[in-house]
Amino acid sequence: MTTTKRRCRLCRSPFSGRSDKIFCTIACKNEYHVRLRRATAYTVRETDKILHRNRSILLEIMGKNKKQKKVDRLILEKKKFRFHYLTGFYVNSRGKTYHYVYDFAWMTFSDQEVLIIRRA
Q1: Count of CA atoms in the C-beta half-sphere (13 A) of 9
Q2: pTM for this one?
Q3: DSSP code for 20
């Protein structure tokens, strides 16, 4: 075990100890990770709101029991659905792309028609 002088990643005070140690105290380590989580939460909050809103729009259109439904694209646009925000996508064997928002997916048939599907 090598003991060399290094500086804490958070408070920059010198410390010694194991070669892979990067914080001088547990308090500095905890504070570093609290700040990191806070910065991440702030950054993703707006995107998460949009994704949840998109899902709510799809749920409203589909209702509670329907498995799939074709709708006019204008209906989604009027409800301010944001087509570029999704949680995943899948390209089927015919080359059609399914865009996922959590447990819903949509596929564009034409410029005016969209198929919405509820995943099981």
Answers
A1: 14
A2: 0.69
A3: T
